[in-house]
Amino acid sequence: MTKQKPTSGYRCWQILWSILLVLAIWNVPQCAWADVNQQDINAIIRTREMALQAINTRDFSKIERSLHPTFTITTVDNRVFHKVQDFEKYWNQQFSSSIQDIKMTLKVDSLRRFLSPETAVSYGDAIATFSFKDGNAANMAMRWTAVMQKFQSQWTIQSLHFSSNLLNNPVLNGAQQAGRAMTLAAGVGGLLLGAVGMLLWHRRRKQPTERV
């Protein structure tokens, strides 16, 4: 039995797929298939730790040099910041109500992905622990995504985005509980005030009237 020779159309498809494969491999960033420099990875980790320390200590003076000149921070309430001073003011305002302190921990989902030798993407989970002024505490689970970009031989944060479950918000729950407590206190206070008023009214009715 003789083998059927490939047709000219089949050969054209083979050539076309070969060209596409070569182009695809050519366009893959070198660091996607080569070993990543460990020094770069360590620098990215240090930058992330500095950013986390700045948030937990509310000291943003040391993090500004680790931010890209065109950086963007998006918070869980859809606020967007491009300046350290504006974000610092926003963060400190969180402690003017019922919140006493906020501590955050980060966890990386998997190994960071290098889009180019100078651009990396990391993402994972975050837990924000809220300590309230009434002594209570609550945790809020979040997700984060960070884009790291090498700028002037230093790894910087180009973009940082946080998201959370709107149905599981300890700050909102705390405010609702405080509102319910105030409503209950107002109701009990009104009930006691009415009882005292009725008692005084009955006492006045029982007192004998003076005859002229």
Write the layout of secondary structure elements.
Elements: H1 8-27, H2 30-33, H3 38-57, E1 67-74, E2 80-81, H4 84-93, E3 99-108, E4 113-116, E5 119-132, E6 137-151, E7 154-164, H5 170-206
Parallel strand pairs: 1-7
Antiparallel strand pairs: 1-2, 3-5, 4-5, 5-6, 6-7
Count of helix runs: 5
Secondary structural class: alpha+beta
What's the total number of strands?
7
Termini separation comes to 140 Å
Approximate shape: globular
Average pLDDT rating: 75
Largest sheet: 7 strands, mixed
Order of helices and strands: HHHEEHEEEEEH
Structure at a glance:
This protein has about 210 residues and is of the alpha+beta class. About 45% of the residues lie in helices and about 30% in strands.
Summarize the structure in words.
- The chain is of the alpha+beta class and 212 residues long.
- It is 43% helix and 30% strand.
- It is built from five helices and seven strands, in the order H-H-H-E-E-H-E-E-E-E-E-H.
- Strands 1, 2, 3, 4, 5, 6 and 7 form a seven-stranded mixed sheet that branches.
- A hairpin with a 4-residue loop joins strand 5 and strand 6 (137-151).
- The chain is globular and about 75 Å long.
- The chain starts with 7 loop residues before the first helix and ends in a 6-residue tail after the last helix.
- Residues 21-34 and 178-192 have low confidence and may be disordered.
